[in-house]
Prior knowledge:
Chain A is about 65% helix and about 5% strand. The first copy, chain A, is mostly helical. Chain A folds into two domains: about 5-185 and about 350-665, no CATH class; about 185-335 and about 675-690, no CATH class. Mean pLDDT of chain A is about 80; it is low at about 700-710. The interface of A and B includes residues 651 and 659 of A. Chains A, B: GO terms for molecular function: calcium-activated cation channel activity. Chains A, B: It is found in: Membrane.
Amino acid sequence: MILSALLTSVGINLGLCFLFFTLYSVLRKQPGNADVYAPRLVAEGKLEPRINFNLERLLPSAGWVSSSWHPTEEELLSRAGLDGVVFMRVIIFSLKVFAFAGVVGLCALLPINFMGNQIVIDFSDFTNKSLESFSISNVNDGSKKLWVHFGAVYAFTAFVCYLLYLEYRYISLKRLAYYYSSEPKPDQFTVLVRGIPKSSAESLSANVEKFFSEYYPSLYLSHYMVYHTTKIQKLISEADKVSRRLAYLKSTQKTSQRYGRVGFLGLFRPKIDLVEYYEKKLEELEDNARTQQSLLSGKEVPAAFVSFKSRLGAAVVLHVQQGENPTEWLTERAPQPEDVYWPFFSASFISRWIGNVMVIFACVILTILFFIPVIIVQGLTNLDQLETWFPFLKGILNIAFISQVITGYLPSLILKMFLYLVPPVMIMLSSIQGYVANSQIEKSACNKMLWFTIWNIFFANVLSGSVLYRVNIFLEPKEVPNILAVAVPGQATFFVTYVVTNGWTSTASELLRLMPLVSNFVGRIFFTKADEKFELPSLPYSSEIPSILLFGLLGITYFFLSPLILPFLLVYYCLAYIIYRHQLLNVYSPKFETGGTFWPIVHNSMVFSLILMHMIAVGIFGLKKLPLASSLTIPLPIITLLFNSYCRKRFLPVFKGYPAECMIKKDRSNESMSDFHERLATAYQDPALKPIHFSRRTDSHNAPLLASET
Amino acid sequence: MILSALLTSVGINLGLCFLFFTLYSVLRKQPGNADVYAPRLVAEGKLEPRINFNLERLLPSAGWVSSSWHPTEEELLSRAGLDGVVFMRVIIFSLKVFAFAGVVGLCALLPINFMGNQIVIDFSDFTNKSLESFSISNVNDGSKKLWVHFGAVYAFTAFVCYLLYLEYRYISLKRLAYYYSSEPKPDQFTVLVRGIPKSSAESLSANVEKFFSEYYPSLYLSHYMVYHTTKIQKLISEADKVSRRLAYLKSTQKTSQRYGRVGFLGLFRPKIDLVEYYEKKLEELEDNARTQQSLLSGKEVPAAFVSFKSRLGAAVVLHVQQGENPTEWLTERAPQPEDVYWPFFSASFISRWIGNVMVIFACVILTILFFIPVIIVQGLTNLDQLETWFPFLKGILNIAFISQVITGYLPSLILKMFLYLVPPVMIMLSSIQGYVANSQIEKSACNKMLWFTIWNIFFANVLSGSVLYRVNIFLEPKEVPNILAVAVPGQATFFVTYVVTNGWTSTASELLRLMPLVSNFVGRIFFTKADEKFELPSLPYSSEIPSILLFGLLGITYFFLSPLILPFLLVYYCLAYIIYRHQLLNVYSPKFETGGTFWPIVHNSMVFSLILMHMIAVGIFGLKKLPLASSLTIPLPIITLLFNSYCRKRFLPVFKGYPAECMIKKDRSNESMSDFHERLATAYQDPALKPIHFSRRTDSHNAPLLASET
């Protein structure tokens, strides 16, 4: 690709970014959009109503930037939880890494690359100059200047490892500090017990009671049995729908809507009073659900939330094998009550097992199917091929601007569109895998998404562009560095446009929240508010973290190959810093708190990126006829892996649980526990088993929610 | 190989066995050999002195067989510990497996093999008939009779898995029962704590005291700090030698020995009174060691044995991460006091790390070096090649008997000689790897030895005999079944002779205890008793279990290929049953008790053997042009692996620790704990730090042992 195509792409995306910023700064001031741009403030009742119309409302402004810049990390912690802080630390970490890389890359490596003359180019026209001349490919074979690249690889690895260590330590300390400062929480005192053995004489619930009060008389507090509630869940969701419909009907003034035909063959039935009909139906459903609730005793799932009087007590039961038969009385960490994924418990063991197998297959199929858009994208970057396939396009493609748009902008756009579809699929896949908590599903989906992205965006593009898409190259470990060294530098320019399109514009559109904006607009015009549930959005970690990490991977691998990517990345991270901070403070509300356990995923991904860079370096120095540098690079991945194994020992255990020291200190701190113990006994409850009462009012905003006070 | 060579080998070994049995039954009656053949009874003082000479002493008898047959498993448990029982269960398990295999193999498979005519042979001379005609190679290609083999593979796998399940359950129940019935033991209440953090103000010992009495005030009992004692150990072992020498000098009557020259240049020094000299030297060494003992405070190792008041207390500390920094306050299961491998603690972290790396290299080098004897052995089985290499041997080799001895007996004998050298090397390697207990070293050496044996005896012989010794075939997983199917049946006869030589004769020589017998004999004639330490021998699990398991592997893989091996194996297991039982009751005394944790190694090895058999079956059915049977065998290894993973979940956790249920029940049983707690406080003590006092008497058998009563 030539420089002008890159500039076209940068131009388009810069324009889009400014458009989005301007639109946002105007739209956010419209009171109707408060639900979209400040749902947290709305929910917290902090937003002052601004009904008076004035000119200011129509002028773009940048006040939101400073308002999201100012809050300290403590404020962020209190508003977005530790997960939000960790998310921001990922961006800050990347900024630090690429600031260093940028200085080294632009001041030392770029001039050396540019001064080489391996690639013969036409110097007369600068804008048509191939971007290749800025990459390591342009350095002469066997040149002594490559030792600068070699030094840069070592220095960069040392710097990244140092930062990784500091960051891991910082976050693990934050995690402990967060634990120390937290209020007593039900999940700290509770253990999820599975595999409760059946006895003919007693119910499972009595069995749990007996076991724990016999063996832990001084520690055991209470337990909450889990039941099969699929039926009740269905009845309640149906009743919920009917109650919404009813509320809508009552709120409308037109009598024409109050009367209608119902049922499958409604056309042949007489018209009836719909309000009366739905009220009757709602009552029936409620009665039905209540009857089901009272018939639960035989539907026990062999799982229970068992609560203990102290944190250490729960930890003891969690860590020591309980029953003589290791397949019974299995214990695992209880999630927070609001984080429990209840449908999981109703699924049978077999359905979960089949689900697991299916998920593996689905991931494989998804990866294969995703190769189709990748081929299309790579076809677009090679225009000549496109012309031979579709000769009628020749005329259009010869227009300079259009061909630049097609090679520079379109490929990344298409890839981005397809990538939008993947995260919901991954979450769905993770949810049928048998996790007991939403946070676990999110984390598992994050991992899946990360490897999917790295494989399908990085490797698929790299390998399809030069060599064929061959999985089997990874079966010949010796060849991998050489193949990567040939393939990776060739895709540098594609990834620069990818950063611009997917990094800049996606982040800017994250600010604009286009989808919620449109659905809110449509909702306001065509439906009444009551017909829709108002739910606070939460940051979709499983799609955002992998995309940030992919940019990290691109930056790390291309740092010494083609430093031109670094300024674009830095701009991306600056944008991301300010925009995600703003969204975390104003838009997203944390649905769960994992205590920063997303960080180990980030750490692993960074170490993987470093080792990938080392492998490419080994290959590149070999290709460039500097075998000594190539062999001297080999210790680097080994040192990095040793560093990683040290970090795993030093920090990872803290992310898997809390040390006894903390738990005992926390248990001894003066807290009024009696109140809390009372609340603890009722903290875990299947939403399907809460008292059923659907409001029939029409005036409230939150009308159709379950009323749990009754 | 032809039948007559096999018969020669069987004949030689049968003769040897009978010779050994006869010798044993005579020698055991000689009072001078009591230390060799009944050291346990001697140590326990149960052996009646039999000084009167009578003719019966010179006649062979078989009374020992019935006396070792009669005791029940409970008696065996009380005398040999659970490890001894598990060891016997391995043999019983193998007997059951190969009794079933023998019935199926000899009644169904052998006739089918023999009736085939794939291999053209001369029927006129039965003794010269190739043994190949009894193997699956003789069945005609594509014959429907191969479905019998197919069915046998399925039935055998099902039978073995069923037995494995029963046995795993039996032993895990035994283990729990053993725990329930055991006296309170120090290791149940103690945890080894490592990584004790240094503080400038206090010693490590004070640090331990503070930490555990602060966080576990109601559970903490006492602790024993570990010190660097390399110097003291050296002084004590030197003093030990001097004291032995002294005792010997005092016991001899010859005055000529009392005077002599000492030192490196002794020849030029005047003669002195040696008794006086050594007494002086011993005193010096003792004083020196005592001074060193009093100077220990600065030589603390950051490790301590911390004892708790209850078993559950120790388990809590063991399983829950203690310190905020996961590299500090590391806890691990404490070994029994007599099982602790003290030298380990004096080794620095770096020396242990280097040791670990060295062990990996040493294992690789040993494996490569061991290939030399394997090549020699395989050369001997191909006589023609030997003749071309050494033409002068032609005359000798043409004598029928000699050539039969060379092909039938010599190869296994040579292999056996080399194999004798390996177990001590493996134990030495394991001991520098950083295990804290002798039992852990033994278990690790057992694992190393097992894989070494399987690789170097089974695979090296199989692959060098037909294809070249190529490690890289395992890089093409699809080819493995075919290569094995070609190579394995060809080595059937070699392994039959291997069973006869290494199985029968080795086991019989185990009864005779040739090496201890000779050293005892030499010792009695040339040295006085006092010059030697009398140590009770213990069963060398690390060399015996792998050899039993190798025969299991041979039996399982050759069961359907060449059922002729099965009767030989059955004889071997019968011999092993009676001989090892006898040795466990009379000779070996358990040095440690692992609670049956050798069983998981046995289980894994059996599952591996089954899967190896399945792979060979897949290959063989393919070669024999029965592709349907080949494909239908593929689910078998998958089912076996699923079975294995179930067993791992169901039983393995019990072998890694004890469940809370057991510990709490045991803690509550009425035991007089105050006495035990007192003993517990002094249970762990570095032998180098015990009070030093060397006896100067000459009359006692145990004279030079450390006197710990002072």
